[in-house]
Amino acid sequence: QVQLVESGGGLVQAGGSLRLSCAASGRTFSTDAVGWFRQAPGKDREFVAHISRSGRSTYYTDSVKGRFTISRDIAKNTVYLQMNSLKPEDTAVYYCAADRDYCSGYECVSREYTYDYWGQGTQVTVSS
Q: How far apart are CA 78 and CA 106, in angstroms?
């Protein structure tokens, strides 16, 4: 069974950058698509970004387009979320999740129940 561990969160000022990492252990997840979600205090968890198995296809929620970039390093068994131009409203716990089955299209990749494994999350706090 794959275990996912997020890292890279922290406190940053508005306009700053962070890079989150999602590392897999237990087995390779090069055959899994991976998504990032976030949950702000008092709010539901929401979709942020998705990357396909090959890395050639990506999806983003509108609020992060042009600021966040998802990528993967197959050799390192790691998926990254580069976050630039951070805003206070980006403050949340960020989770990565792996999807072992085929799923395409925004509607599918943005659903929580598409994903089979989840990490424990990493806190991102953006100060104004």
A: 22
> And the tokens for 124?
């991102």
Residues 6+ apart with CB under 8 A from 34: 22, 50, 51, 70, 72, 79, 96, 97, 98, 99
Burial class (CB in 10 A: 0-12, 13-18, 19+), 77: middle
What six digits make up the tokens of 30?
Answer: 């090069």
pLDDT digit string (tens) for 23-58? 998 877 788 999 999 999 999 999 999 999 999 999
Tens-place pLDDT, residues 4-25: 999 999 999 999 999 999 999 8
Separation CA 15–CA 13 (nearest Å): 6
Structure token digits, residue 7: 């890292």
* Residues 97 and 117 sit within 8 Å (Cβ to Cβ): yes
Residue 103's identity, in one-letter code, is C
Are 5 and 119 in contact by the 8 Å Cβ rule? The answer is yes
